[in-house]
């Protein structure tokens, strides 16, 4: 008779087998998991709002502290509450999860681009606590950024538990982000677009259906608890005259200026607080002090998310002077909150700034042309909201649709699209990066050009160049040159050098073709220098492949010379366009393999082996002392020892208890305390493990 323990073991084995079998059915598995991510995202958004309300109740004595209530508080409370909030937030983001500070979306984007969507599970917990306290105590930030990071973190953790592939992992992270935006703004289409336009950066993503399922599911959950009414009332709108569109063009320009000022100020604030030499856990209190000072001078309008004053702007109830002041105050307050290490999003502040900017432009238009503008600036405020969000995030479709869904009105579609597109174009001219990517660019992560550039930026020319380069003297006659071209099947170009072996040009089929029609007449007079293209573009061995690819793209050239940096104009090799393509494909394969290894080999630990074939094994072992300080190219373990380095695991400098995975590359230097996942002959690996 089977024991209880055996029955439990058998049942667990059955469910594991059933889950593995179901997970192989891509479409059904993805949709089911997307559905659960949507539910989690929806309840996460509802719970997060309740958490903010609970903090506000504790801090201010009411769950909805309006402006009159805050102004009625004693001056010391207006100053102290945001500071105390910062003192609570600081230890959370410093000691639990550093990823929880700031607006969070760049961290999600970076995880998708560089680590296959792997996000630590503790980030969700830290983000809930830090953001709720930060916003609830008066911090100037939105609630959407935390929900995006929370949803993405939970989705990533589910993917890690189920050992999904890197491609699936990225899709599920996108599902979490879409669910967060959809539930926060009651906007399922905007949530879907946010995921594909900002987080994944790819409208051609193969698994769009799961993202839609998550977005719709999260919206349904949110509406069940928070209602289905639009977040803002639609202002009355009519186009008095076609000439009025000129002012919407001006509004697009103004929105771009405000969005760029916001992005630059936020980045400057983050950089400033990184340089300030005080403990990290104290820095959010400084941001809280800035917020408290705004409360002291009678500007608690910038406290929290700011929806109340967006509504006032849409209804046309704010004065010109107040809106001008609030634009500057909101930029400073949000930058202080997030730059100092507070936690929250930037979409709500962007909406706030857009509403105020639209009102200011309307006031100016009504002074210049009182007969051709509407009587109320609500429509201008609405259009300004979309334009500032579009320019700040460089995601115009998401910005336009989020405003449609927030208001439930489509009457202003023409000026909305006009202003938003102009704001994006002008914003890009003024500042190359978006408010999300400017922080990542400082870390060397460039997302705006797509995954290809990020991959190619990690590979040096010297890793793929060929030293078997073909050169000819500049005075070589045409006939022997043609014979040489006919024999040189492995080279797309022949490089022409002078008497001192300095590169002066190249000859490709394009140059040869021009003389083929009259060889007999030209043979006595032409030499290599006459035929060559004398404007050779070259790369150095330390340049990255994205530079080479840009040079290939700029001209019809299949092979580039590689120049010795210590001897200008001296050719040391060449690189083919096909070499770059092959390196890109291999790197993508390695990244997918790395993600698969992360999921599939969690059971491998130091000293434990997984047999691959008779006499061959895979093992994770600590880097032998004789390898420390050397790079993989110098070690050449494949040829010397017959083993392959599959993955390197290294202690995260920000969290020493955490090991991060690195892809092996020729120039990667091994450090003391690293672990390497290797495969090869068992005897060799056992010897290395003992050394």
How many DSSP helices?
Answer: 29
How many distinct beta strands? Answer: 10
**Approximate helicity band:** 55-70%
What is the domain tally?
Answer: 4
First-last Cα distance = 50 Å
Q: Major sheet, described briefly?
A: 5 strands, antiparallel
CATH topology of the largest domain: the name is: Clc chloride channel
* Top CATH class of the largest domain: Mainly Alpha
CATH architecture of the largest domain: Orthogonal Bundle
- Summed over residues and divided by their number, the pLDDT gives a mean of 79
Name the overall outline: globular
CATH superfamily of the largest domain: Clc chloride channel
Low-confidence stretches: 599-607
Characterization of the model:
By secondary structure, this protein is α+β, with helices and mostly antiparallel strands. It folds into four domains: 19-226, Clc chloride channel, CATH 1.10.3080.10; 242-442, Clc chloride channel; 461-581, CBS-domain (Roll); 601-690, Alpha-Beta Plaits (2-Layer Sandwich), CATH 3.30.70.1450. Helix content is 58%, strand content 9%. The protein has 29 helices and ten strands. Strands 6-7-10-8-9 form a five-stranded antiparallel beta sheet. A three-stranded mixed beta sheet has the order 1-2-3.
